[in-house]
Structure formats: structure tokens, C-alpha cells
Design goal:
heterodimer, A: 375 residues, alpha+beta, nine-stranded mixed beta sheet, B: 123 residues, five-stranded antiparallel beta sheet, 5 strands
Chain lengths: 375, 123
């Protein structure tokens, strides 16, 4: 690729990125500076990354409405046992909950009755410092401990089997049927993921040129990863709020931003939080999108608060983002839903940081979609 | 020294020894991060601590300018996560360790990661 064509490509990307940031003044200014630099660097070092079409998910008129609570376990319940719930994962027998302050995991049945507590604070096998993410790995459950920088593997019943140290500041994890363990982190500055194989760790999922940052400020990345049933690896870039998809060779296949209006307000919220709590030297990262989860039908669930939605179901084919909306009334408070697990029908969510609830969701088609279906 | 005093002294020493032995066994410091953080007057946003980790930051400085930043995490992880800077002919590497607290923010549910030694709470 010549200098001229790569510059043109970069300028095209610049315009797209700039459009994506319209309405967010400071982000746009950063975008101008960052992408001009990228344009110049493209002349020196042509990118091998394929050109990607840049577009947005469109926010659907349909929705998943959260219904009444059907099961509950909270601090007022004698079964209650949590200090701070950081992650929830559905398993065959029920749910596994990661408690970062109690340094342990709890296995609940499908009615939220506690079945078993696993782990304690420590560095030994089956011990944890800050278990913060959970993922299915075939018949096993993988537990990401960001405090110890390692992944532990449990049977579905909660028995510890082994652990693996992973390099870097870690954020999220997913298991790929062919590749094995993929961990989102900063070990490889030009890649979103660490591919953890038996013979070592390598960078995977190259970060698109326009999204790479080179700052002297020490910041923690906020990216999430999920693998859909077809083997596609999806990364939600936590700064750009874009879904970047890769095939199993690591080649980028798709790049789609979250819905434009929602994205702009979330970026504004991230900047406001950073400034309110001490600026970027104290606030090392803000994660607005806090869960990315693959659904059985190939769609993705992303947890990110936007208006009265606690997240979106992303349809990768139609590029539609269907909001999951909270109910009115006192069942849903400001402290509800900070941590969630969604299986496409039931939503398991936290109440405060110490309680768990389950609610059914109802898909409500938009009027236009209903009319089209009738025709 | 009477037998009673002797046994008391031995008992106290054993208890002290066991206390240190337990600390040495666990080897994990308690977090210095605040349980809650607040956006201050006029800002209704508050954060609840859900976990913390020790982060090691390595900075490479050349001719008075910072050349690169990298970081790693974990008790005993001992790994370096890569270097964002360029190569230098003469450089100094400094390392600092600090705790980072992860807070869930209400309302909104965003998670923010705060360096616990530089965060100044509102009073």
C-alpha cells in the first residue's frame, strides 16, 4: 500500500471516527489530533489490517421489558452472604456468583438458594484475591482473578481443577472452542487479547489503527470479550464503545459502533466521572460497558446503562441494538442491575452489591415491526 | 521468676510468633482503598468498592523525558505488560506499586478504577 493510498484510507477513517464522536466536543478534538498522527504514521508504516466498514448499530423500536421479580436473595435474607458481587454466570445447575470482597465464589440453584461456597483469600490453588469475571469453558467455568493476574478453572459443580497465570493487567475472558483461553488485557499494546496456549501467551485481535492510544498517562483498558457459537471473537472496545469482530485466525471481520446517540452520552458520562473523581492520574479507567455475553442464538448482550435501558441485545446480522428496559415502580431502584447475567429470557441482576434477583423479560415488538409481521 | 509468670511469658511469645507466622503465610496486605467514594457536593454519584488489586507501574525515562509506561498486576505475578515507548540510548527505569480499587457507581452502574493512594475524598 502506497503512502498516498494509506493516507486516504486514514483520512476516510478519520472522518468516520469524527462523525462517530459528533456532539462530544473534547472527544472530537482528541480524535482530530490522534487521527492526524495516525495518518502521518500510515505513510511510514502501512497497515496490514483490512479496511473495515465503520457503522453504528441502530437502536431498535422493539425492546426487552424487564418483568416482575421471580426470585430474590438479599442481605435481609438469612441465606444472604455477599459482600460485593462483581460477576454472575449461568451454569447448568443455576448460577455462580463472584464476590470480590469476600474473595470467593458462591454456587446458587435456579431459585437462588445457595448450594456451595468456593475459595477464600489467598494465593494457593482454589484461593482468590479479586475474582471479577466468569466464563464458560466447555464443561468447566473459568474464573478471572484480576488481583492475582490468573485464571482458575472449576468443574460445573465448583471443584477447582487448575489455574494459569496471565501476563498484564487483565479485564475479561472468554473461551474459544478451537483457540482456548482469550483474556482481554494490556500485555500486548497493539492487541486487545492475550491468547493463552499451553506453550505460551501471544497477542490476539489486533487493535484497529484509529483506536490505538499512545499516552504517557498510565490507564487501564476497559475492553470486553465474548465468543459467539460460530467461533467469531468479539471485542467491545471500552473507550471507543465499538464492537470489533475477528475470525479464529485473528483477522478483523467487522467494526460497528454502539448506537450513535447512546454512545455520545456514554462517552460524555465517562469524561464526567473521570473529572469528578480526580482526573486521569487518579481515575485509571472507567468502564461503562461492563458485560459482553454471547447468547445461544448468536446475538450478544452488552450491559451498558443508557436512558432507561440497562443494556442492549446486539443482532450482528441486522445491526440492530434492542434495549433491555427497566420497569417503572419500586421494584427497580437506582442501585439495581449493576451486575447482570442475561440468557435471552431471564435477567439475573444485583440489588445493591449484596443481593441477587431474577426477573423474566418480555420481548415487545415495535409497532412498525408488528405491522410488517402482519403483512 | 515464678512458674506462673514463666508460662504467661512463654504463652505470650508463642501467641506473638503465631500472629507473625499467619501474616507471613497469607502474604496478602489488606486493601488501603476506601469502601465508598463520592463525587462531592452537588454530585449525586457515589461508588461502592467491589475489589482491589496491587498494580506495578514501570516508567522508563530518557534525558529527562518519559519514554515509556507499562504495568503489571498481582501478588507475586512479577510480569511486565509491555512497553508503550520507544528505544533509548540512555534510560532510567523506575517502578512504583500502588493499589487500584474497583468501584461500582450509583446511579448508572459504571465501574471506575481509582488509584487509592492519590484519591482525595470529599469531606
Amino acid at each position: 500500500m502506497s503512502c498516498r493510498s494509506s493516507s486516504a484510507l486514514s483520512l476516510s477513517r478519520f472522518r468516520n471516527v469524527f462523525r462517530a464522536r459528533e456532539g462530544v466536543r473534547s472527544a472530537a478534538l482528541l480524535s482530530v489530533a490522534g487521527n492526524l498522527l495516525l495518518t502521518l504514521s500510515a505513510c511510514e508504516s502501512p497497515s496490514s489490517a483490512p479496511p473495515a466498514e465503520i457503522t453504528y448499530f441502530s437502536e431498535s423500536g422493539s425492546e426487552y421489558a424487564i418483568g416482575p421479580v421471580i426470585a430474590r436473595l438479599n442481605e435481609y435474607d438469612e441465606r444472604g452472604m455477599f459482600a460485593a458481587i462483581g460477576a454472575i454466570l449461568g451454569v447448568d445447575t443455576g448460577y455462580i456468583v463472584a464476590d470480590g470482597l469476600n474473595h470467593q465464589l458462591v454456587l446458587l440453584d435456579k431459585q437462588l438458594n445457595p448450594l456451595r461456597t468456593m475459595g477464600r483469600q489467598g494465593e494457593g490453588p482454589g484461593e482468590y484475591q479479586f475474582p471479577s469475571r466468569l466464563a464458560r469453558d466447555g464443561d468447566h467455568v473459568a474464573v478471572l482473578d484480576v488481583g492475582l493476574g490468573r485464571v482458575s478453572f472449576l468443574t460445573a459443580g465448583g471443584d477447582f481443577t487448575r489455574s494459569r497465570q496471565v501476563t498484564g493487567n487483565l479485564r475479561d475472558l472468554a473461551a474459544h472452542p478451537e483457540l482456548g483461553l482469550l483474556v482481554a488485557g494490556d500485555a500486548f499494546p497493539d492487541h486487545y487479547l492475550v491468547h493463552v496456549a499451553e506453550d505460551g501467551q501471544t497477542g490476539f485481535a489486533r487493535i484497529p489503527e484509529g483506536f490505538r492510544t499512545h499516552s504517557e498517562l498510565f490507564q487501564l483498558r476497559a475492553d470486553l470479550v465474548a465468543v459467539t457459537p460460530d467461533g467469531t471473537v468479539h471485542v467491545l472496545d471500552g473507550r471507543q464503545l465499538a464492537l470489533v469482530s475477528y475470525d479464529s485466525t485473528g483477522s478483523q471481520t467487522r467494526l460497528v459502533y454502539l448506537p450513535e446517540e447512546a454512545r455520545a452520552s456514554i462517552i460524555e458520562r465517562i469524561e464526567s466521572l473521570t473529572e469528578s473523581f480526580g482526573g486521569p492520574r487518579t481515575v485509571l479507567g472507567v468502564q461503562a460497558a461492563t458485560t459482553l455475553q454471547s447468547l445461544a442464538d448468536g446475538r450478544l448482550f452488552v450491559q451498558v446503562t443508557s436512558g432507561n435501558a440497562i443494556g442492549f441485545v446486539l443482532d450482528l446480522d441486522s445491526r440492530e441494538a434492542i434495549p433491555i428496559t427497566v420497569p417503572s415502580g419500586n421494584q427497580w431502584t437506582q442501585s439495581s442491575g449493576a451486575t447482570t447475567f442475561f440468557d435471552g429470557e431471564r435477567l439475573v441482576f444485583t440489588e445493591g452489591m449484596t443481593g441477587v434477583m431474577i426477573a423474566e423479560t418480555e420481548f415487545v415488538a415495535s409497532r412498525t415491526a408488528t405491522a410488517a409481521a402482519r403483512r | 521468676m515464678s512458674n506462673k509468670k514463666l508460662w504467661f511469658t512463654v504463652g505470650a511469645l508463642v501467641a506473638l510468633f503465631m500472629l507473625f507466622a499467619v501474616d507471613a503465610n497469607t502474604g496478602i496486605a489488606q486493601t488501603p482503598c476506601a469502601d465508598y467514594i463520592s463525587g462531592g457536593a452537588g454530585n449525586p454519584t457515589t461508588g461502592t468498592l467491589i475489589g482491589s488489586r496491587k498494580v506495578t507501574r514501570t516508567t522508563t525515562t530518557s534525558s529527562g523525558a518519559s519514554a515509556g509506561v507499562s504495568g503489571s498486576v498481582g501478588v507475586g505475578a512479577g510480569s511486565v505488560a509491555g512497553n508503550a515507548g520507544g528505544e533509548t540510548s540512555s534510560s532510567t527505569t523506575t517502578t512504583e506499586e500502588f493499589y487500584v480499587g474497583t468501584y461500582v457507581m450509583f446511579p448508572g452502574g459504571d465501574r471506575i478504577e481509582v488509584r487509592c493512594d492519590t484519591y482525595v475524598g470529599w469531606s
